[in-house]
Amino acid sequence: MIEQQSESFVWWKHGIIYHIYPQSFKDSNADGTGDLQGIIQKLGYLKELGIDAVWLSPIYKSPLIDGGYDISDYYSINPVYGTMDDFRELLHKAHSFNIRIIMDMVLNHTSSRHPWFKLSSSSLNNSKRDWYIWHKNIEGKKPNNWRTNFGKSAWTLDEKTNEYYYHSFFNVQPDLNWRHPEVKQAMFEMIKYWLDMGIDGIRFDVINLLFKDEHFQNNPVYNLLSNKKVYNRNQPELYQLLKELRLLLDEYKDKVSIGEIYTPPPGNSTLVNSFLGDGTDMLHLSFDFSFVFSFFKAKRYYKIITNYYQSIPDKGWPCFFISNHDIGRNLKRYFLPCYKSGKAKVLAALLLTLKGTPFIYYGDEIGMENTPLKRCELRDRYGKMFYPFYKGRDKMRTPMQWDGSEYAGFSKVLPWLPVNRDYNNVNVEAEKEKPDSIYLLIKQLIEIRAQHEALYKGDIGFINNGANNLLLYQRYTNKEKILVMLNFSFMKRKTEKLIFGENYKILFTNTNRKTVQMEEESLTLYPFEIFIAQIE
Fold first, then answer.
1. What is the pTM of this model?
2. Is 520 a catalytic residue?
3. How does pLDDT run across 79-112, given as a tens digit for each residue?
4. Which residue of 70, 135, 262, 511 is surrounded by the most CB atoms within 10 Å?
């Protein structure tokens, strides 16, 4: 049985959530694809790392044209990953390790192979016709200028019924019509099915896309290739729906709802956090992409983080991530080869010491990078469409690197995507043996975080604004104060005057510093130094 949370430790606020892309985590049956039994085999690894919950990308039945985000049956497990019995075993064994399971759920659209869409597209008079968004074909013109997230028209003509249907993504992912009460009823019943089974939370994919303008107004034109997505996302009706979803989840104990609200660079914290409501009546957590769009400068992070905190409702709670299955791995996205290890460690320390729930993407804890792929190796339809200008999302979804054996210990046969060529040096077993590895740093920081309430539940106060490429802040409760200082520079940097007194107990530093030696109430930090101390 899973341990019940207490007022002092709320798992989705104070714990560490680990994101697994199931196809790429661990193959247990030698077919080249990761599966549920593979995840079960690695629960001990996750527990040792200090993980409190696992978020699984979609594992439902799907043609896998868009990585499982094209669902053809919400009530079945994709045979590629195993069976429903395998999932129940995963749930039970994860709970025995005190690890929660969060399911990824796509409410915006289904696969075109879903029985609902097959019925909807069968005739104009079918009872499921209005479960999707259809528009009359008037003189062969598209209904409006709405575009998919990939840039093409979001309308496809169905030749059988001679009407257009709407799709926010690929044409094999038709959008559901959330203005139809039967759609909402069917989806709420499906959500209850999984909650009744015992899952611990739901991550709602592209939740801000559910409603579209009912008058189908044209979006404002941005340039020749795109327009501002004003009328096909972020519609006001969503707020009421989120309140109803929250009421549904609150019927169960200790569940979490997480919303993906994608906004283009540089992000929009105010919009993202509006979907938290007052912090108690809509989403529990919402993803803000501003953090991952930042470049590696202390001042930039300060601005993004403080703007984000200011936009969160008083009863809301923040969360942070630095990589995911769509944006890419932070090591390759942020850093040139020079100094990348030092930068990655600073960013990991920032993630694990800020106020908010940290999300770790599988492999980031060992320093996995995006994998260079040839066109013939791509599986992502998006990458195939735009290669070589954009090479898709496969590069950040390659197999987990467990050891230095063939196929990196992920599988005994050729994997579904190539393993990164650096796997001999970058793998779990190798990282465990390196005294200065990213893995050991992250593991130690997670341990320190779990031991100090100020780090996992305390408030935060910034000491500087990122000046001199240093970020200094204090995490505190009424019982404890912890000082965090991060040097984002490859050079030594001197801090501003520290006015907390002279007694510091060093909790962590990635240097050989043993004591705190002040110079006129300032401290000189080494290149890319992480300094965490308890103020006594």
1. 0.97
2. no
3. 999 999 999 999 999 999 999 999 999 999 999 9
4. 70
